[in-house]
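User: Quick sanity check before I run a bigger batch. Here is a single chain. Can you write out its predicted 3D structure?
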Amino acid sequence: MRVLTMLLTIAALILTASIPCPAGVLNPAGTYKFILSNSAVQGRCPMGQNGAGTLGIVKTRKGYSLRYLRGMTCRPASVCVLYGGCRGGACLFSTTVQVDNEGGKVTNTAKLRFAGQGAIGVGRSVYRHPSGFTCTWTYQLRLTR
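Assistant: Done. Predicted structure follows.
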């Protein structure tokens, strides 16, 4: 009897995991292919590049984390891990990381609107040096599963 109960419980869990979230409930967790396009820069910095790769979104205790897995240059690695939350179909992720030994910091943000099996949105990276020097890179993002 215990074995049968355990098998039924496992089957129920498997079936529940494969059912999509009800309409209006967002669960962006998963692995996505991303395309970065329409790159632009403001300031005296090198132009960002269009590209593609993969990223993962994971549910955390406080919301979600977004991590670029392949296709982005991440120095230090923590610059490619953003944290945030979602409301409706929209998610906002961000992080601020010191990136040089002069106290320069980069703030990365990604605003995404999820629908179906993917999302579209914009990204922005701002470098700020303590001397007042700044550069801003912007780009469009498209995610697909």
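The first strand starts at residue 30 and ends at 42.

User: Great, the batch can go ahead then.
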